[in-house]
Amino acid sequence: MRIVTALVIGAVAAANSGDVPQRRGQPRKPNPVAVKPKTEPAKVSCPESLGTGVKTGTSYCFVIAGRDPAQGVLVTVPPHIGEATLRFDLHNRHTYSEEQMKARRGFAKYTAVIGVLTLKGDLLDRAAVQTEFRTARDLHERISGGAGPGGVKAVAPVGSEPIAIAIPPGIDQVSLLGEVLDSTTAAGRETAAPGRPVAIVSNVTIEYRPRR
């Protein structure tokens, strides 16, 4: 009787410890919690580049209004376990004019909304940025390669909104497309028009748990 009791206790202890031998030929599935997350610059296909920042060397890309995901800013998502996280900075687009500033007509207000979609057109999430411009100090950064003083472009990013978007498993590429633009400048009111820039993105990174 004591022998039977000891065998039963041993079996229960083994079951509670989870030390159950795995069947041969069955690969061990990776545990998402055990795989450390990795963050790296994303591979980005930019249909229309604004250029490079003078101070930081950051690359800036226009987000164009449209409905076809293939024409958006394409971001490659590495093979991943569980959800990945797409991060980027979202800016409004401003055309700086020294003449307007001297004439005290430089005020501008912008609201931009973009969508993050799969290449099949499924909407994953939206991101928005709202900015007011009053002085040159409100510019996020000037862009090199222009004809203005100091060799900078008139168009520059204004404002900066950090964005984080969850990317479901199985998705290897997403598209950023402009949806809404509501801007008020000295030139008048502007809204989103197909093929026109709605916003600007920079510092695009991916955080994910790599597949083993």
In a few lines, what is going on in this structure?
This protein has 212 residues and is mainly beta. It is built from 2 helices and 12 strands; from the N terminus they run H-E-E-E-E-E-E-H-E-E-E-E-E-E.
Structural account:
With about 210 residues, this protein is mostly beta strands. The chain has one domain (about 35-210): Jelly Rolls (Sandwich). It has helices spanning about 1-15, 100, and strands at about 40, 45, 50, 60-65, 75, 80-95, 110-120, 125-135, 155-165, 175-185, 190, 195-210. The longest helix is centred in the N-terminal third of the chain and has 16 residues, at about 1-15. The two termini are about 50 Å apart. Mean pLDDT is about 85; it is low at about 1-25.
Name of the top-level CATH class: Mainly Beta
Structural class: mainly beta
Order of helices and strands: HEEEEEEHEEEEEE
The count of domains is 1
Shape summary: elongated
Report the β-strand fraction as a percent range. Answer: over 45%
